Amino acid sequence: MDSVFFYRNNIKAASRSGALQKIKIALQPNISVAGWPTETGSNALAGFKALENATVAEHAVKAGAQLIGYTRMSEFGFGLKNSMAGSVLQKKAADVELVLDLAGEARLAALRAGVCGFKPRYGLLSRFGLAGLIPSMEAISILSMSIKNIRGILQAVAGADERDSSMPEGKTPDLKPTKIDPKKIKIGVIKDILREMPANERESFEKKLNELEKAGFAVKELSFPDFSQFLAVHQIVGSVEASSCAGRYDSVRYGKREPQAKNWNEMYLSSRGAAFGTLLKSYLIQGAYFQFESYAAYENACRLRARLVAQMKNLTAQADFIILPAVNQAASENPATLAETYTQFIYTAFANVTGQPVLFLPDKSGAGFQFTAARLGDGQLLSLGEYLQGGGEK
Amino acid sequence: MEFEAVIGLEIHIELNCATKLFCDCPNNPGDEPNVNTCPVCLWFPGASPRLSRAALEKAALLCLGLNAEIQPVSAFDQKVYYYPDLPKGYQLSQAHLPLSRGGWIDITDEDGSAKRLRIHHIHMEEDVAKLVHEMEGRKPVSLVDFNRAGAPLVEIVTEPDFRTPHHAMEFLKALRAQVRNVGSSECSMENGTMRADANISIRTKGTSQMNTKVEVKNMNSVRHVGDAIAYEISRQSAAAQAGEKIVLHTRLWDPEKKVTTPMRAKFEGPCVPDPCVPVIKLSKKEIEELRARLPEMPADRAKRFVNQYGLSAEEASYLSADAEIAVYFENLIKEGVAPRAAMHWLTTQLMPAAKDRNQELSQAKVTPARLAALLKMLARDEINANAAREVLAHLFASDESPEAIVSAKGFKQVSDRGEIDSLIDKVLADQPGAVADFKNGQGKALGFLIGQAMQASGGKANPKVIREILTKKLEALCKA
């Protein structure tokens, strides 16, 4: 199992009673658990032990869950290289895994493992204690075989956190199951995505749409000609945020310091050069390029982001849910470059750009599908998932 | 060719908040190194900045006190640069959407006319860590003290309205008075809670062109700012006369040699919106509530002092500049001291005495009530002015009442005419020479004789009574 676990928690805490009693949770080593090696899959944090618990970890333990260990992750969770996300569920060693979703990583990991994956809306889960990379886009996401478990975790850990000021204040949102009546539900499909899909992929996607119609749902075609722009916006804004965010990994207070440097500038350069992997380095350099050399392009990307968010809001108002494919079968499974890495996320990155909730459901076909909803639709999405998995309220 | 200078100031002021800008660490940069730190101000992985409401309010009050317009929406940006004093690689500052825009300070120009110096904008930002360079044996080491990292600052950026060192110095003095008055900072350039950088360029007098500017730093008093600007104007004028090109760069003021020396090419890093600190939204209602908390401003107070207490404009403006002094003055009046006496004793006696002892008025043992008790004894002729000055010195050292000090130290004034009469007879007998001088019309002999009589009384006699009796006796002697 060490190929899956980066760190195992051998301390058996007395099981607490609570909503998550007996639930075993694995997490990625970018979610702080005090005293655990929170190294985020990067040499830049080699040897770093978290000082405090992340809010999500703390709430889960309070609700009776057991934190069983850290699973192996890609560097800062960006891309899927070296990530073992989902394996712990496949092997049934945990009930739930918490995985960071920066551009769709958690959803694609769920697909790979054949489990459900839920990326909550931005601001539903506290980011306190998350050693993140793209603050305005990434979200701690929940992988599990069972949507009931996903809802249980969400109910236990969601809600305002005074230690994370990016969260909305106020009451914990209602995440209770709602009744799904297919006859009253419209599921949207973005025809611009469909049109661009290779024939074989489109075929299996259309088969799924037929199934939904047979089950009584109304399927409605929606138009979103700019959908393909989500990826470019993500890549520009994401790299700029990553470049700033990784600035603190300077080898001074933690991480490994290269000994040969003659001055602080050399020390930064050589330590950072040695610590970060190639993919991350190219991402950070791209971000620095937009910051220092092409700021206007970054500003344009921010404006475009605002426009895409507005268009998506308009789209989600035209249907109860929207169905999308998850995997780009044309993308390389082992991407070598930044560009190849991004092609994996052409169907997923939109939800990180807008911050809306999205649920990945596995499927017999092996491909699986994403369902998304309006900004506050987390609870309804899980109800839809339970219905489609055959366990929800009818 | 005659040149004129175009000057703008950038002033950093450290807010006197209890905590830092984005965490709950104490805002005490002077403590033992690195005691006031936490995962947020050390920027550990997973830490999340939380904007201090108290700092926002102090900053907003400062803006309102400088006639600036608070913006309904402001936000923090990341000013990206890499340096050991900034461990996260960017400084949180408000580059694109500052807390306030506009504002002004009115000063008196050298010719006595009023001049308005405008403010471009005021923004909030966090301070960076302090680097300490030391020797470990023969090896130079640089140490980082994070106590100051994340301390709440505001930066005031003026319009290039300044033309002379006088403008800059008067602006800084008025700025300090107004900010101290709203209670947002002590604004001490000597202690580093106020730092002013000047941007200076020159142009041919009468033109409106904006030429390449030079930034000057490292002035730690208002006078240094004036001196540095004066130096830089003459340096640039000489360079321009010689046909040299002025290039954009930063210079350091050397207070010993009184020159500026080049430091570095000016580096402007990018400013990217920060995704973690929420956008600041202040409603009209919130802004008005803040405005209602503003104390009376120095200029308004000066007008009121002229009307209410009959002071001259100059006296009123002097007493109004510092809230602490103004409050002390009005407390003396409340205790029953006449306005002129209060003004006179406060400015010529108490303030210099407190300064000599390095004490703040608000902390000194000489409370308004105790000084008022003393001044009332003076007004009732129970003591004379000399004695009052001596009692004042005792008031700084002990908690006893002025009355007790006067009787214990024998400062009580002698006004008994019989006692003074015989004293004067003795002086006249002892000083025949001075009496003769007086008879010969030398007026100053009278002053000498008053002094002798005063001395003979051990300084306790009422000088008015001495003068009255002495004058009568001398006149009688002249007639005889």
General description of the model:
The complex is a heterodimer of chains A (394) and B (480). Chain A is an alpha/beta fold. Among the domains of chain A are: 5-175, Amidase signature (AS) enzymes (Alpha-Beta Complex), CATH 3.90.1300.10; 230-295, no CATH class. Chain A is 37% helix and 13% strand. Chain A is built from 13 helices and eleven strands. In chain A, helix 7 packs across helix 9 (278-292) and helix 9 (278-292) packs across helix 10. Chain A is globular. The mean pLDDT of chain A is 93. Chain B is of the alpha+beta class and 480 residues long. Chain B folds into three domains: 3-281, no CATH class; 296-408, no CATH class; 417-479, Arc Repressor Mutant, subunit A. Helices cover 40% and strands 21% of the residues of chain B. Chain B is built from 15 helices and 17 strands. In chain B, the strands form four sheets. In chain B, strands 1, 2, 6, 7, 8, 11, 12, 13, 14 and 15 form a ten-stranded mixed β-sheet that branches. In chain B, strands 5-4-16 form a three-stranded antiparallel β-sheet, with no helix packed on it.
Q: What is the molecular shape of chain A? A: globular
Beta-strand content estimate of chain B: 15-25%
Largest interface, per-chain counts?
A: A-B, 40 and 28 residues
Say what the CATH topology of the domain at 5-175 in chain A is. Answer: Amidase signature (AS) enzymes
Helix content of chain B: 40-55%
The Cα radius of gyration of chain B reads 30 Å
